[in-house]
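> forwarded from #structure-qc
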């Protein structure tokens, strides 16, 4: 009896220790690949640190490439080598090419089962942009649009009223003229009214505003539609900003100093960009600035800028990768990145909160991005679209800098892209 009692006593002593060993958590390691500015890197590092703090048995390796082009090349090389990051950020325009090569894991089924995220909590334009061939491929972090950053001091000096929510193309051009100045009478422009990249992604919303389309069928495109009367009208108006109005730097002036740098230095009245520019703009100390919506054509339209958290098809720990994506797109995760100024949160709850609409942080009118959500449109999601967009942008640039007429550029763009459309056809 005493032996049995002793045995029971020993078991009572060692069982808790054995139980503790059995319950030890399994460590998980996740790699997360990003690109962007130093401020963006710091925001995503904070996100990774917060996730690890909330989940001590998980570690996140942040793979960072400052330059977007280098990022895409590295991403393609990693996929080709069979060693991609578990999670990466991708713009919705680029998901089709990766999905077609089975490089990504569709996340729709996981979102449907999630106890953290609900599809209905996201702005529909953002979530819809990442659907391709009936699958949801990534969870969007951002529902940004193209806006105009403007230098309030230059507007004040020129006696030009600040942009309003209902300003028109004519209002915009009038302001740009007043803000374009030769300060010393040497026939050289010292201050320009507008800075805008001559690319399709900048031209597109104006084509839509004029009632035109980029392609013949946005759902199943087979050719460009830049030759339609409405598209040509918007294209000509866009080109005239530089060729006729001279309110935009010409090719030589842009090469000497890029428009973003010109805006930061105080020598540019208005600058087109998405929310991504905010962390950089917050470094401005010598003048006040704000944001305004795009000027309105015959109808309202803007263009979606959105990146999503995507999962590699060859991730070795997909459950861990999804856990990180869930956290990144939870209220806590989106608030962290939103505070950096980088994103317009895709979660309504965060976008409409002080984490985004913070009155103590510039810009003063971040509501501009939320007001634009109902007008957001997207370019086609297809594997060849990035190549099509690059080809068209080169022709837009030729017209923008006076090297071709709008008619010539539109015709050349259609001819050069037709083989790409045919290649993409089922």
């Amino acid at each position: 009896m005493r032996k049995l009692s002793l045995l029971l006593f020993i078991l009572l002593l060692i069982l808790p220790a054995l139980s503790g060993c059995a319950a030890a958590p399994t460590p998980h390691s996740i790699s997360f690949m990003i690109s962007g500015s130093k401020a963006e890197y710091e925001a995503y590092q904070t996100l990774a640190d917060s996730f690890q703090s909330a989940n001590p048995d998980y570690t996140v390796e942040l793979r960072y490439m400052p330059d977007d082009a280098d990022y895409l090349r590295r991403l393609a090389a990693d996929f080709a080598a069979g060693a991609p990051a578990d999670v990466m950020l991708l713009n919705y325009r680029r998901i089709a090419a990766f999905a077609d090569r089975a490089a990504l894991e569709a996340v729709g089924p996981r979102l449907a089962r999630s106890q953290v995220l609900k599809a209905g909590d996201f702005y529909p334009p953002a979530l819809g942009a990442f659907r391709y061939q009936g699958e949801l491929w990534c969870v969007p972090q951002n529902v940004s649009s193209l806006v105009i950053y403007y230098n309030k001091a230059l507007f004040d000096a020129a006696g030009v009223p600040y942009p309003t929510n209902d300003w028109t193309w004519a209002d915009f051009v009038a302001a740009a003229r007043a803000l374009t100045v030769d300060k010393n009478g040497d026939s050289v422009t010292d201050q320009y009214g507008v800075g805008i990249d001559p690319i399709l992604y900048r031209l597109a919303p104006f084509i839509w505003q004029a009632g035109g389309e980029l392609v013949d069928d946005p759902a199943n495109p087979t050719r460009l539609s830049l030759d339609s009367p409405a598209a040509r009208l918007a294209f000509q108006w866009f080109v005239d900003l530089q060729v006729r109005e001279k309110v935009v730097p010409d090719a030589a002036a842009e090469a000497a100093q890029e428009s973003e740098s010109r805006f930061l230095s105080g020598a540019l009245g208005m600058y087109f960009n998405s929310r991504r520019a905010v962390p950089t703009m917050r470094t401005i100390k010598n003048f006040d600035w704000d944001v305004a919506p795009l000027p309105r054509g015959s109808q309202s339209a803007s263009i979606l800028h959105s990146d999503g958290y995507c999962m590699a098809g060859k991730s070795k720990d997909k459950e861990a990768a999804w856990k990180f994506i869930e956290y990144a797109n939870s209220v806590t995760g989106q608030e962290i990145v939103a505070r950096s100024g980088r994103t317009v949160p895709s979660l309504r709850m965060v976008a409409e909160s002080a984490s985004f609409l913070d009155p103590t942080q510039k810009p003063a009118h971040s509501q501009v991005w939320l007001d634009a959500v109902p007008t957001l449109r997207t370019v086609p999601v297809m594997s060849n679209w990035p190549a099509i967009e690059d080809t068209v942008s080169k022709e837009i640039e030729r017209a923008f800098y006076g090297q071709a007429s709008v008619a010539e550029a539109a015709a050349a763009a259609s001819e050069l892209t037709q083989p790409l459309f045919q290649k993409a056809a089922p």
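QC bot note: Confidence is low (pLDDT under 50) at residues 6-22. Residues 2-22 form the longest helix (21 residues).
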